[in-house]
Design goal:
Elements: H1 2-7, H2 14-68, H3 71-79, H4 86-127, H5 142-169, H6 176-188, H7 195-206
Length: about 210
Amino acid sequence: MEAKTLGSATPRKPVLSVSARKIKDNAADWHNLILKWETLNDAGFATANNIANTKISLLSKDKIELESSSPACDENAEQRPPEYSKELEALCEELQATLDGLTKIQVKMEKLSSTTKGVCELENYHYGQDSKRPPLFHTWPTAHFYEASRQLSDMYGAELLLKRTIVEELAHTTDHDLTLTYLSLWLHQPYVRSDSKLLLESMLLETGHRAL
């Protein structure tokens, strides 16, 4: 009977009843935001790959034209911006739009961390120095939710900064190896650690979104 009460996510104290509901909603929001991030990340990689291929094609074309051009053609070549392509420009705008979408998601992640911190502060105010605080759900102290949220938010914040650099540099680099490095970094997301999935799934399990 006691276990059922804990699992129902309805604490005895009204102030914590609201807190539990907020924490549970935040966990669901984390799940949805990460799904949206992954969808945009995949779309961004496809666009970045197209940028790299288009860039390689343009560089090869410019090299061939340079080798085969006559002096009379040089003036026309100078009037045309080097390595310019409407297709490349469109792809860069598409990648920027993807980055903008990822930025909005990361801002929402920061807000989730902020609201979770607020729940912790509310609990501290409610209980004061009393260390005997019943868990909102099963076993996690409330502060654990903030720690998990903060870790996830920091990971995706660092990853966003990396992606911003890639967007700024990808279309301008002429180094093939560097281009491949950018693509690999975008795809594998080095700042989103492998334990991010464990953090999310543990949060979903604790709040009842996943069956025990």
